[in-house]
Every structure is written in C-alpha cells, then in structure tokens.
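User: I'm curious whether this sequence folds into something compact or stays loose and floppy. Could you predict its structure so I can see for myself?
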Amino acid sequence: MTDPETTPEGGVHPRRPIRSFVLRTGRTTVGQARALETLGPQYLVPYQPQPLDLPALFGRDAPTILEIGFGMGEATAHIAGLMPDQNFLCCEVHTPGVGALLKRIGEAGLSNVRIVQHDAVEVLDHMLAPASLAGVHIFFPDPWHKARHNKRRLIQPSLLARLLPRLQVDGYIHCATDWQSYAEQILEVLSAQPQLRNTAEGYATRPDYRPLTKFENRGIKLGHGVWDVVFRKT
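Assistant: Here's the prediction. I'll summarize afterward.
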C-alpha cells in the first residue's frame, strides 16, 4: 500500500512503496563470482510470492533469524558461526555482497544460512508465514542523513506493521546504526509500538554476538558513535 504525495505540478501520484535497499553499482571479484557459481545453487533461495517452508529449506526445525541488508556478510557469517542451532535467512540485493557472504559460508563451512537476493520488504510481505521468525537483525541500514530524505529510511511504522505479525512472541528486533539521528528515530518508532518492549533503558549494550566490523572499527577510531536498539515482542 502506498501513500499519495503531491507532484510539482500540483497533482497527486502514489508515493513509492518502502524498500529495504538503495541500488548501487559494485564490482564482483573473481572469488565472489566463483562462490556465486559454486555455492549459489545450494544457498540462494529464489524469490517466490508464497510462504517458505522453513524446516524444509534448512533441513531442520530451528529458530529462524531474518537479516535485512547484510552488506558484505562479515557480521552475518560471524553470528551464524556462533549460533549453529539457529537458522539465518538473509536478504541483500547487491550481487558483490551476496557473493562475499557465499564465499564466507564456504570458508567457514556454514550450513545454517540461506540468502534471498531480493527486497526484504517483499520477502516479508510474501515469503514469511505468521509467527515464523525468532528474531530480526537490521545492522547499519542506509541512514538517509539529509533531513529531506529521512522519510526514505527503512525503519518506519509501515515496516513494523509488516514485521510484527511474522515475529513470534518473545522474538526480538535488533537494530544498530552509527547515525545518532537515526538511532533516535529507531528508538522512537519501536517504543511507540505497544507489542514491543525495550530490553534496556534506552539504548542497549552491544550484544556479544554482534561483532565489531572493520567498517565499524574505522568509525570508532574517527570518533563516531554506534547505537544498538533491542526490543522484544510481548
């Protein structure tokens, strides 16, 4: 469902639906291309407009964590390795990132990760059954830091309206960002949802399972802050 917005000519047209990504160009390395060719058939899940059978997909019945936008997959592979008893369904649209995570999966011998190379909003809408998720990870989403672009940020009430029915009771949402204004917005949006409770007084201490990536460490050395927000469904 889209909201109308006024055109410069004074007419009305549908606003673009919320998306979990911004299209970017990027070069796929030889190693990433090889991983896509050799491991893609095993770990890539084609988009389909019907709910997944998660136990069949992973070959077992285990708690499933959805990750929205994993970048180059550094944190994803680390967390999946730490949590072998959980399944990770990961969404990313950028081919170099998908190839990079596949390469990490092969190097670490991970069997609990599957990748959907598609917009996570449509995955939520069509591929996930009610109460099918034990958790959701959204790490460093695009901050859209200019004020006039803030409405394009992923974490909005409209995303929660899609996400919450698919989250189990006591399931969690873990967000992290290095933009303070976005952290404030995330905290505000999640706090306004009566089905969610904050696990901390304000921002959470970084959970042990979320690693400090090279990108994050670089930011910290430059004096940038990082904020984690963790809520659970009541």
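Summary: Strands lie at 4-6, 12-14, 64-68, 87-91, 113-116, 133-139, 167-177, 196-198, 227-233. The chain has one domain: 29-233.
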